[in-house]
Amino acid sequence: MTLQITETPPPYIEKKTRRGARKVPLREQLIGWIFVGPFGLVFLAFLVAPLAYALYLSLFRKAMIGGTSFVFLGNYAKAFTDPSFLDGAWFVVRFSLVLIPVQMLISLAMALILDMVTSSFARFSRLMIFLPYAIPAVIGALMWGFLYSKNFGPLGDIFGLFGASAPDFLSNDLVFYGLLNIVTWQWAGYYMIILYAALQGIDPTLYEAARIDGASSWQIVLRIKVPLITPALVLILVFALIGTLQFFNEPQILRDLAAGTIGPDFTPNMYAYQQAFGLANFNYGSAISFALGGVVFVCVYIFLFATRKRGSFLS
Amino acid sequence: MTASIDVAARRRRPQRYLPLQVLLGFLLVYFLVPFWWVIVNSSKDAAGLFGGGNALWFADDIDFVGNLRELFTYSGGIYARWLLNSVLYAFVGGLGATALAVLAGYGFAKYRFAGRRFSFAVLLGAVMVPSTALVIPTFIMFSGLGLTNTIWAVILPSLLNPFGVYLMHVYARDAVPDELLDAARVDGAGEARSFLQVALPLMRPAIVTVLLLSIVATWNNYFLPLAMLSDNDLYPVIVGIGQWQGVASANNAGGTSLWSIIIMGSLVSVIPLIIAFLTLQRHWRGGLAIGSLK
Question: What SUPFAM superfamilies does this protein map onto (chain A) (predicted)?
Fold first, then answer.
């Protein structure tokens, strides 16, 4: 890596603000805005406007009789007493609590192994482990759905060899693990690549120095490698958090394969989708979407704030 | 650069650690099993799929070509249309998002303007807003404008990529030296010219990464087109396969022949992205680290 990334703002800004020269020539300001402007417009149109609109919609309720009425936070009050929403939210929280540590440990372990082993087989494995990231979540869920399936999956054959009956990962009891496996399979390779790239950016003379001081391989891993890639670990944790709390694709696809196990309110996002597009209840759907987006935002922000000293992408 | 010394040192004495390689082998099997299943089973017909043969091995008659022909002729050849739609959405959306991200990232990194710090803080906040939370209100806005069920309903929201802007900002800040831009200006180059001829070539690794990530995000986006489109002919390939899958599950017995098409369709739909990743791997691998080193 030739990138040298520092916490400090670009030097020219520091110089000028320190001198107190706050006046930037109008021409430079204008050019700056010309570069940022096109994205700014898209940002306003497809992020700010929908969020504001969702907030607005979420404050109303549409009744069969009497039309639309302003209910202020009524939809939110409804959501937080609605068992469908609460069960879905609880599932997503439980799922994140198990998934994120598992996923991070696996991707960290793989990254550390691939950082140590330098054979061509390791290079090949690195690429293949990453491959599931290129697969659409829907297709990934479908592939695993096939593998889990009683009709054409291999689990029956494999467990049959030992005279046991195969576990049904699409049943009520095991669908949690079925989904856990799919998401881990899909994302661990992507996270592994991010961590691996961060590991490759560490100056190897540090390892030599540690070895001269008598450090074992384990000590090098735990005291040098892991601490130095903390920013990358924080980054993937944030990605995982954002991704899991808005869980939609995989359970939506498995719904058809796992008849009866996964309901339309399995996750908050699926519930919002059902309310909006299944029942044309856009106000309530917007309230759920907005509440979900808000909760994700606040969680991630608190997390980043708490870890900011360890270095994060939110400088 | 120390990394090159390191590479040379490692090359002299490759580190093999046999037990770790065996462990890697097991991991590899886990990560490749679903691909293997799809490759094997896309060669089977309904009898082979449901006949109880080995699920992880080929049936007696291997019929890739027949299934392919079936896939591309089923329902008036709609699958080819879905593939083309996916390509259109991914390329227009991905290229557009990348162009906007390059401009904005460069603007944030290299110019001072009123509201710069505030805008950048808002941008970082936006990275954390889950994009699916935007789908429902965007749908209602678009439906008011008569844009739902058009290609624009999928392409326009795909142009938004705050994380791409962030990556470009970090990269441009470090990879494009101010001195070089100043030198270009002294030599009489305008802002547009110093951007296009000086900065842009230096930013190429990050551009490839952001482009690839944007294309993958658009290609793999399921929620947005699922909500926006109701016309079969406009579906991207994964929404189409999802729909087939729903049909096949709903009528268990009658849908048996559809399953071989779905499996073949899944296989065909993942090939373009796999090729893109494998051919561009030298470029994206370094680029992915940009956001994580800070």
Answer: MetI-like
